[in-house]
Write a structure and sequence with these properties.
Helix content is 81%, strand content 0%. It starts with a helix and ends with a helix. The protein is globular, with a radius of gyration of 19 Å.
């Protein structure tokens, strides 16, 4: 079945893009889950939807405009991440309140721009739930560039991000430049969410950043193991979901998320059985 994806250029771009997304989404998702900021992905995905709707509106209203819906989605996502960071500094005692505020704003702007762009159409549907045939060469190169940036950033700032994830107060007291590191982290999240919508869809991308991590938490005994297992589970869900979605002629976002849930349920069941066996052996 994978051979069919490698025969045509557009399917080849889609397949390679899915592999990249299966890597970077769970990779950043591990830090996101550990920091208990899982809803951040939801908020930025809705802001990205507003940017995409804005891009579709501009395309219809002004012919020949250079900005694409993907690019406008990335811009909105980055701006949304900056707004969340600003609200965190304003509401220091209630830092999480910035997430629902931005999420609500993203939903409101999405409704407005979708209405101005003459409602739902095929293009918007593909952005919402993903598409096998919508990934172009430019999209693939953009996501490849973002993936390289994510991997390089995590390689050089792994210790800082790890410290910030488990003890933010200690990170700030120890002179770690926690604000700059967090700013860099949230910008990466914004770019990864905007980049992943071609395959998973803007409404389901947050699931790809959290569900593989939730499954990996059942087995991982260290943070590095958590990263490795999360990426493995993410790749399994993305590749298998993409192929099954293609052959069933349905958006791949739904199959990717449902396979992620199956992997999660399987990890819970297997972990419970191992726990029961170990208890019986000790008895």
């Amino acid at each position: 079945m994978i051979e069919h994806f490698l025969q045509f250029d557009f399917l080849r771009h889609t397949f390679y893009t899915s592999i990249l997304i299966g890597l970077i989404a769970p990779l950043l998702g591990t830090f996101l889950v550990v920091r208990r900021l899982s809803l951040l992905a939801d908020a930025l995905s809705h802001v990205t939807l507003a940017g995409i709707a804005f891009g579709l509106f501009i395309e219809k209203r002004y012919a020949g405009v250079w900005i694409t819906p993907i690019q406008s989605g990335m811009i909105f996502s980055v701006v949304g991440s900056l707004c969340i960071e600003k609200l965190r500094s304003i509401y220091k005692a209630y830092q999480e309140i910035g997430i629902p505020i931005i999420l609500s704003g993203g939903v409101g702007l999405s409704v407005i721009f979708i209405a101005l762009a003459n409602g739902f159409n095929t293009d918007l549907f593909n952005y919402l739930f993903g598409s096998v045939s919508a990934v172009s060469r430019v999209d693939f190169l953009t996501i490849l560039f973002i993936s390289i940036g994510v991997v390089i950033t995590l390689f050089f700032f792994y210790k800082e991000l790890l410290t910030l994830s488990f003890d933010e107060e200690y990170a700030s007291v120890s002179g770690l430049h926690s604000k700059r590191i967090h700013f860099l982290f949230i910008i990466l999240i914004a770019f990864v969410i905007a980049a992943s919508i071609r395959i998973v869809g803007v409404l389901l991308v947050s699931a790809l950043m959290t569900l593989p991590v939730a499954a990996a938490l059942r087995f991982a005994k260290s943070f590095k193991q958590l990263i490795v297992y999360s990426v493995i589970f993410g790749e399994i869900a993305v590749v298998a979901g993409l192929i099954s979605g293609y052959y069933m002629s349905i958006p791949p976002g739904g199959t990717i998320v449902m396979l992620s849930i199956i992997v999660l349920i399987g990890s819970i069941v297997i972990q419970k059985r191992f726990t029961k066996r170990s208890r019986k052996e000790h008895v």
